[in-house]
């Protein structure tokens, strides 16, 4: 009788255990989906811990080996001169090349190009992560008359080596933007760069599209000035060294190589997120960012692929120059984009048809004292031609690799007297009819 009762209880217990593990796994999967940034941070931290343990073990092993070798040499030479053999197995410090910066008494000439290694660039920045309102930031920089509307600044004592557009993708991070401006503006001034800030804000209900916002910011920034360097900057990344020079070079640049939340380790070799920089020529050659990444993850990996496909390599700051602090988040991030791996597998094929050349958007532009705000309501329909163009390319009607470097940005439509910029599809030569809340307007492509 007892055996029969036990057999009856066993399936019930197994069922309860199965339900428990199913509920637990479902909860974990849901958390990964709705908060991928948090999960990713913890995974990178665990990976970083493993790397640190491995490096520490190697260091301890090297020290033990060094002591054994020193002892052997000491015993061998004690009979000769009764002294230790002057052996130094750690020569790394003697071979460190220190970067030379100009002396404090360096004289600037207004008609000469600003140098890259200025005496004003001291290195470590005094980081203040405490929250501050935009009103306080406005008051702080209102004392500097050289900062023009929209945060535009250029040095007066030399010719800036680079004209830099700082593009910041934005959504509901109002507590982060003032902290970023508090640190970046003085740093860029010390680097003697001509710069302006473009905050590209996404509204609406669609998942956050960081990459498409960068494309929009690029198009809008190029209307203001012939910028030659583009910095793609997350709003929550604060540089720790002003020697992390925000100019561009012959190769695309990855600035944020050591982030505090990743224990100052590069998560993986192809990591290209956080803060990156390309020249205008480089950005146009790779056809910008992809527009198809909705939600968290994948767009920076696709950018890495685009850079490699175009024949570039990525440069990074040396040593601790690429250290950044991450502003803590007070809210949950974007949901995870589950389709990113499928897109990354087709990254090379999509590069010629998804980017600057299939970008469509409606922008509302306003000016703050310290930045230009570009507000857009992005939807997948605004870049829906990419899949169609990819199919045409597979059938032999699309563009090839040679045409990638010739990818042109879309044409613009502009209604005089209004601050709304309208962009048509590049393939269309027809007149477009735009319906708006304040009426209808018909215009021809420029």
UniProtKB/TrEMBL annotation:
Enzyme class, UniProt record, top EC level: transferase
Domain Galactosyltransferase N-terminal: 114-248
Galactosyltransferase C-terminal domain location: 253-330
Gene3D superfamilies on file: Spore Coat Polysaccharide Biosynthesis Protein SpsA, Chain A
Subcellular location: Golgi apparatus membrane; Golgi apparatus, Golgi stack membrane
Recorded family membership: Belongs to the glycosyltransferase 7 family.
Protein name per the record: Beta-1,4-galactosyltransferase
Organism this protein belongs to: Ovis ammon polii
């Amino acid at each position: 009788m007892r055996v029969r009762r036990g057999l009856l209880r066993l399936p019930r217990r197994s069922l309860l255990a199965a339900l428990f593990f199913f509920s637990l796994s479902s909860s974990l999967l849901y958390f990964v989906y709705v908060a991928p940034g948090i999960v990713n941070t913890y995974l990178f931290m665990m990976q970083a811990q493993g790397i640190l343990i491995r490096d520490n073990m190697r260091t301890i092993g090297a020290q033990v080996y060094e002591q054994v070798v020193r002892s052997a040499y000491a015993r061998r030479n004690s009979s000769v001169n009764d002294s230790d053999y002057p052996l130094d197995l750690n020569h790394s410090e003697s071979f460190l090349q220190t970067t030379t910066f100009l002396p404090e008494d360096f004289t600037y000439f207004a008609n000469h190009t600003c140098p890259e290694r200025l005496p004003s660039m001291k290195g470590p920045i005094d980081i203040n992560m405490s929250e501050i309102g935009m009103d306080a930031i406005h008051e702080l920089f209102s004392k500097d008359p050289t900062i023009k509307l929209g945060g535009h600044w250029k040095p007066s004592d030399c010719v800036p080596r680079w004209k830099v557009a700082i593009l910041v993708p934005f959504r509901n991070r109002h507590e982060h933007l003032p902290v970023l401006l508090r640190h970046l503006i003085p740093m860029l001034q010390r680097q003697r760069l001509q710069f302006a800030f473009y905050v590209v804000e996404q509204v609406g209900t669609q998942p956050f599209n960081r990459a498409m916002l960068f494309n929009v910011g690029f198009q809008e920034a190029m209307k203001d000035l012939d910028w030659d360097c583009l910095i793609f900057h997350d709003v929550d990344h604060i540089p720790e060294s002003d020697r992390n020079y925000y100019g561009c070079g012959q190769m695309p640049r990855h600035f944020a190589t050591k982030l505090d939340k990743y224990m100052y380790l590069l998560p993986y070799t192809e990591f290209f997120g956080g803060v990156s920089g390309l020249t205008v020529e480089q950005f146009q050659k790779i056809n910008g960012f992809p527009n198809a990444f909705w939600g968290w993850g994948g767009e920076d990996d696709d950018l890495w692929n685009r850079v490699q496909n175009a024949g570039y390599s990525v440069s990074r700051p040396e040593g601790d120059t690429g250290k950044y602090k991450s502003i803590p988040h007070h809210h949950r991030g974007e949901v995870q984009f589950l389709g990113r791996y499928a897109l990354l597998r087709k990254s090379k094929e999509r590069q010629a048809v998804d980017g600057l050349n299939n970008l469509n958007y409606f922008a509302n532009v306003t000016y703050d004292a310290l930045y230009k705000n570009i507000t857009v309501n992005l939807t997948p329909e605004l870049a829906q031609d990419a899949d169609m163009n990819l199919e045409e390319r597979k059938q032999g009607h699309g563009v090839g690799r040679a045409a990638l470097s010739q990818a042109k940005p879309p044409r613009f439509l502009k209604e005089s007297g209004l601050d709304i910029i309208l962009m048509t599809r590049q393939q269309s030569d027809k007149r477009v009819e735009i319906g708006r809340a304040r009426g209808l307007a018909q215009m021809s492509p420029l």
